[in-house]
Amino acid sequence: MTSLLPIARPPWKGLGGDLESACRKAIFDFGLLDNVDRLAVALSGGKDSLSLLFLLHALRGRGFPMFGIVAIHVRGEFSCGAGIDERFLQGICQELDVELIVRTSTKKLENLECYSCSRERRKLIFEAAKEAGATHVAFGHHRDDSAQTLLLNVLHKAEFAALLPKLAMHRYGVTIIRPLIYASEETIKSFAQQYGFHRISCQCPVGQDSRRKKTDRLIQEMEAVFPHARSNLARAGLLYGSDKAREI
């Protein structure tokens, strides 16, 4: 019986092939899967993390070893990103034969703030990854996220620092990888729409007015004058920001 869940797998339709090519290029260019036997995927349930899970699952055994995958989801009273029913993710992971680990955020409305929330969620993900025997954690950050980060760091901290495709988190004993670093948000959005899993909006009451959101709106204004501003910022971050880049 065909699953009613929105599962994306080859042979691709629409932009799937382009997205896979971008993912493969990032993996090869930056050695993202070198010496990786078991990989954790940070799974919020939004279009980015689900696209990443589907792509990495499809790549196994097709030019890459059959590395193991474990998905890690952080639930809580307030969700950073998808705000999705946990049973939906359980169904998708079961269909893919991927273990799903769930951790719980402690954030309440009175102490909800982007920076501390992000740090707590990452700590929960890193600890779960290590417990599952995964030394690398894949995040669904894409080209547009990197462009936002670069401009945000320049304007807020006078630092030329974008998102790194691969970053060793020595304090936590894991390495972050970002296989979608070459992919645009628009491509990911179209991919998610084609396969029926782009229907979720952010449930965070403070996220829509964060510095990152304001920076994205600023880039949109810049694109009216410089149409390639977003892609050029992301490219500059990869070409010139690697030596100085660090997480914000």
Characterize the structure shown.
The chain has helices at 16-30, 47-59, 86-96, 114-131, 143-157, 185-195, 211-223, 229-240, and strands at residues 38-42, 68-75, 99-104, 136-138, 166-169, 174-177. The model is unreliable at 243-248 (pLDDT under 50). Strand 1, helix 2 (47-59) and strand 2 (68-75) form a beta-alpha-beta unit. The chain has a 6-stranded mixed beta sheet with strand order 3-2-1-4-6-5, with helices on both faces. The protein is built from 8 helices and 6 strands. The chain has one domain (16-240): HUPs (Rossmann fold, 3-Layer(aba) Sandwich), CATH 3.40.50. The protein is 44% helix and 12% strand. The protein is α/β, with parallel strands linked by helices and 248 residues long.
Summarize the structure.
The chain contains 8 helices and 6 strands, in the order αβαβαβαβαββααα. With 248 residues, the chain is an alpha/beta fold.
What attributes does this structure have?
248 residues, alpha/beta, Rossmann fold, six-stranded mixed beta sheet, 6 strands, globular, disordered C terminus
The overall average pLDDT, rounded, is 88
**Spatial sequence of strands, sheet with the most strands:** 3-2-1-4-6-5
**CATH architecture assignment name:** 3-Layer(aba) Sandwich
| Oligomerization | single chain
CATH superfamily: HUPs
Could you tell me the CATH topology label. Rossmann fold
**Cα-based radius of gyration, to the nearest Å:** 17 Å
* Whole-number count of domains: 1
Number of strands: 6
Name the overall outline: globular
Number of helices: 8
CATH C-level class is: Alpha Beta
Helix amount: 40-55%
Q: What structural class do the secondary elements suggest?
A: alpha/beta
